[in-house]
Amino acid sequence: MSNTKETPQLKTGKGGWVHYRPEIKLLDCTIRDGGLINDHKFDDKLVKNVFDTCVAAGVDYIEFGYKGSKKIFAQNKFGSWKFCDEDDLKRIIGKKPAKTKIAVMADADRTDYHEDILPKDKSMIDCVRVACYIHQIPLAMDMIKDAHDKGYETLLQLMAISNINEHDLVEALEIAAKCPAAGVYIVDSFGSLYSEQVRDLTKIFLRVLDGTGKDVGFHAHNNQQLAFSNTLEALITGANRLDATINGIGRGAGNCPLELLIGFLHNPKFKIRPVLECCRDVFAPLSKQMDWGYSIPYALTGQMNQHPRAAIKMRASDKPDDYVGFYDQLMQEES
């Protein structure tokens, strides 16, 4: 142990749970993923609170929302964070923090990226995450090149990973390996993966991307109450970029809770107390107004590797607790 006042950098790689890897990067997607519940209509006070919390907690990236196409999504039906216009970002952020990066997500086929993503020197944004399904890989590569050429850090989100066979996955990763993205994320869109699958997928990503300098990332959903444990599995296997949300907020069953992940990492750079304050002051009251988190309908769609839209509809119906009826419905659709 060093006698200097600097924080010791513990060894990376294998080690006990008391170790930490200083190269780990946390991305908070509270506003973006949480916005899928309420059409991105969070008020400024809440968004500012989340932003200040993440800065105080030492989170590396804060993802505000989407760069949604205004030709597809009507502005009078969605809140500001469906579009992340510069004036809205400036209103919340003010003076940019020195260490925390501002991220947005650009969905393939849902973003007018040539026009709406400005050159970096005209934007508050630092990082553009491009999200795509496997059949959209060619478009995603053009989107990443466009954002990279404009001066942004770029990341790739490969969604619905549980529906991709290994041959196609490797082919997609080989293409992604040649793009300028700093990292490629495994996305458990349906919350259907188990730890063994997460471990195997992380190994595939690491193998194909080896030597490119790209990080592997992981984005979990909590349909089967495995978001936190699966995130740890990806971390232990070698993923360096991890997604989380405050109080686990997110569409349907939600995401990996940021407070759990910070508590596990043991990295002195991250602070849990600001997150707990935000959980108490913002998300405990909000949970009485908005529906997210584990419930049996989401568990059933996760077990069946299905999109949670049916469970979301069921939770909003006049029979939100008719689990047997919902199970029978899913089984009938499967047959």
What descriptors fit this protein?
39% helix; TIM Barrel; disordered N terminus; globular; 335 residues; single chain
Q: What is shown here, in short?
A:
With 335 residues, the chain is α/β, with parallel strands linked by helices. Helix content is 39%, strand content 13%. It folds into two domains: 25-286, Alpha-Beta Barrel (TIM Barrel), CATH 3.20.20; 296-334, no CATH class.
List the helices and strands and how they pair.
Elements: E1 25-28, H1 30-34, H2 44-57, E2 61-66, H3 86-93, E3 101-107, H4 113-116, E4 127-132, H5 137-149, E5 153-158, H6 166-176, E6 183-187, H7 195-209, E7 215-219, H8 227-237, E8 241-244, H9 258-265, H10 273-286, H11 296-303, H12 309-315, H13 323-334
Parallel strand pairs: 1-2, 1-8, 2-3, 3-4, 4-5, 5-6, 6-7, 7-8
Helix pairs in contact: 2-10, 6-7, 7-8, 11-12, 11-13
